[in-house]
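Hey, can you fold this one?
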Amino acid sequence: MEDLELATTLLFRPVGQKELELIEDTGYKSFPPRLFHQPIFYPVLNREYAEKIARDWNTKDLASGFVGYVTSFRVKTSYLSHYEIHVAGAKAIHQEYWIPAEDLEEFNQNIVGLIEVEAEFRNDSATASDSALSD
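Sure. Predicted structure:
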């Protein structure tokens, strides 16, 4: 039982400039509350999917500052067991959790360690500027 409580799941979250600044304001410990028009928080299960969103969506979005970042973080697996994994597209790699906005504070309390920036995509660049942090 102890192993299950210590186990973590690696997740990814594509974010824009403003959301990254809000994460930075917390010391890279939590995600900001959702806005009124954002009822769900969508962490994804693999880096490839997060990169696609950051590169193909965030870099074309004014609200994201035309920049996309891929963040990674670990969440207690026991906490995530309360939520289903959803496939949000035609491909199996499009896996994500749907965390209701009202659960985000509790979700943040179940993050283990810091939120790390894995990659950056800008509108004026076709390739990622990897800034992977070593473990």
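The first helix runs from residue 2 to 6. Let me know if you want another pass with a different chain boundary.
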